[in-house]
Amino acid sequence: MTPWDFEQIGAALAATGIAEAAEEPLDVAALAAERGESPGVVGEIVATLRAHGLVLLSEEEPDAPPILTREGSQYLDRRGRVEPDVLCFLPRYVDDLNARAALIEEGAILVEEFRAAILDGRLVDHARGLAPPAFVDAVDGRIALGLFAAAVALMARLSSGRAAGCTAEEIIAVSLIDHCGAWFERELDRGSIGAADVRPGLDAVRGVYSLFQDDDVLDLFEMEEPADAALAGHSSLNRMTGVVDQRLEAWFRPFGGVTAAGHLEKAVPESADPPVG
What we know:
Blueprint: H1 6-22, H2 28-35, H3 39-51, E1 55-56, E2 67-68, H4 70-77, H5 84-88, H6 97-119, H7 123-128, H8 141-159, H9 167-190, H10 195-205, H11 207-212, H12 227-233, H13 236-241
Antiparallel strand pairs: 1-2
């Protein structure tokens, strides 16, 4: 079988839906016998479906009924005509195939528009259009280039299932999520999706924040001036809840567990002596 042979994948998904409706566990052995396959092969198929978010199976309760997810139903409806990249993109966090496609395509557009702005000499103006309003005037050439690097890094991280590595990348993620609305408008106009697909898809793109484990970055877009970020940093509640330093000078500092490499800057302790020479 090919990795995504619809005849076999579709049979497993259909069996999942039947088991869910009957409130019974998925019987891999019975499905294997019905399909003339070995239980091992069918088990691998089911594991693949689970890994890509097309079915939900409880590890704690193996006798619990499976769940055919929204993505699983979409895959069945499309008879397997889904790009492999879409199937692999953030399956644990984005529970809609349209939303996954939107994030991938709009991410490519976001990076390409940044690249075009650099070539056309519009980098700073373009970057200011993506920055939180309170920080627009503070975005200079250095910050703008950093935001471009952050856009490239963010899409690389998301493609490998990893969260943003710094505040700047999270800022880019806000623009990415906002721009997904354009994807749904285009696909609706083309007739590729229906009106009923739009709201669930737009809700699902916000699953990126689940990957980040919070949406604290949205606070930056509510601030009135850069100094508000410093005030927020002194908030006892923010310190208790682990809100990161959101000041402009900290936008490119790596989050915990992320290496200070590339566009990411090492934090310099305030007590450190200036470099000599």
